[in-house]
Amino acid sequence: MTNVIHLTPPSRINPQEARLGALLSCFAEYRRHSDDVFWLKENAEVLNILECTRTKPGDIALEAYANFYQTVEKRLPLLPPVLSLLLIDHARPRRFGDVR
Fold it and tell me: Rounded to an integer, what distance in angstroms lies between the CA atom of residue 36 and that of residue 99?
């Protein structure tokens, strides 16, 4: 047993902000097209999980949603009326974790 090699795993290189940015970017940009209603559902769920676990991504991590916030008002007429009403309150930019 003198030939045992000890593995020293590397520490996490990226800070939490970079890891959250990568996670949110995967959901926002790569899983589905942003015009798909399931895109909206999945992204709402991942952001809700972060909020429920009191994980607060910074502005850099939330950058993946910048295009959505810039175009959401143009998309509202295309969504069903009930969903449009729900998005009016939620689409206003605010700091993550603020009370509505």
Answer: 27
pLDDT tens for 42-71 read 888 898 899 889 998 888 889 999 988 888
Instruction: Write out the two tokens for 65.
Output: 């949603």
Segment (H or E) for 67: helix 66-75
The identity of residue 45, as a single letter, is E
DSSP string, 2-47: TTPPPP-PPPP-S-HHHHHHHHHHIIIIIIS-TTSHHHHHHHHHHH
Tokens of 53: 């676990």
Put residue 87 in one of left, alpha, beta given phi > 0 → left and psi -120 to 50 → alpha: alpha
